[in-house]
Amino acid sequence: MSRDIDVLVLGGAGVDTIVHVPELPLPYADSYLIDSGVRTRAGQTGDFVALGLTALGLRTHHLDFLGDDPEGDLVRALHEDRGIALTAVPQPAGTKRAVNLVGPDGRRLSLYDTSRAHPDDRFPLDTLRTLAATSRHAHVSVTHPCAHALPALRETGVTLSTDLHNWDGENPYHEPFAHTADVVLLSTTALADPERTMRHLVERGRAEVVVATAGAEGAYLLADGELTHVPPATPPAPVVDSNGAGDAFAAAFLYGRLAGEPPHRCAEYGAVAGAYACTVPSTEADAIGTADLLARASRRSQSSQRSANRPLL
């Protein structure tokens, strides 16, 4: 069967309203004056992964629920402008949305509106199976109702990845994703023992590779039973917002994996892309391109090699 799609991205379409605040956590006050403005733009986790993959030249298709509302129009416009194929299932409850409070150091606090879904929402099986059967890989967001799509995706034989984000290692909601995917990404933010959680994912699921991103500390890669540290990449400009860094890491990691690169090289790509994403203002949607990614990764590799060859004093 022809594989016309490189990556099918499932779920995670929506809009964010960005509010720059003087500090996080934000002290209680009756009101704050926001000189930078309060701005709404398209782009949640699935949108940003799809954007990153497309910027790296991969044929990408995004499937999710969208409302017939102004927020849905923003999401549709983003995909049309960036040349990302989109299949939007009608959502009467409206398009998913969130509010991101962004501090001066680029950290964020996200408030997700969970009312934009129904418990019985399901992707049309025929649509899901057709898209998956013509895809080389599928990246599944941990948004409703993606968990219900996992069995059908597995039946098609497509390889799967997921990003558990700030999972604490215990919340049962994440387990279907964690135990079904071939590649699992997550953040160390809420993990008491990252290595223990990563090894449990391999033991209990079918993951071949687990990556735990750790912000400014880099990331940790578990592959072939070996845990290694991936140093952070140097951002090419001042850090202004960490929103979307994990999605950029995921997109670049998958780019490397689909190109046949070894896991550590894929993680190096992810580190470079994540650092780049931190330099993009939260009110914009942008991603690193292939030439820039490969050039920065090459310079990073050469620098690491020179350091390894430097004689000890």
TrEMBL record:
Give the Gene3D superfamilies listed for this entry.
Answer: 3.40.1190.20
Q: Name one Pfam family in it.
A: PfkB
What are the UniProt keywords, alphabetically? Answer: Kinase, Transferase
Does this entry carry the keyword Nucleotide-binding? no
Which InterPro entries does the entry link to? Carboh/pur_kinase_PfkB_CS, PfkB_dom, Ribokinase-like
Record's protein name: PfkB family carbohydrate kinase
Q: What Gene Ontology molecular-function terms does this entry list?
A: kinase activity
Domain Carbohydrate kinase PfkB, residue spans: 192-285
Enumerate the PROSITE patterns for this protein: PFKB_KINASES_2
Q: Name the source organism.
A: Streptomyces phaeoluteigriseus
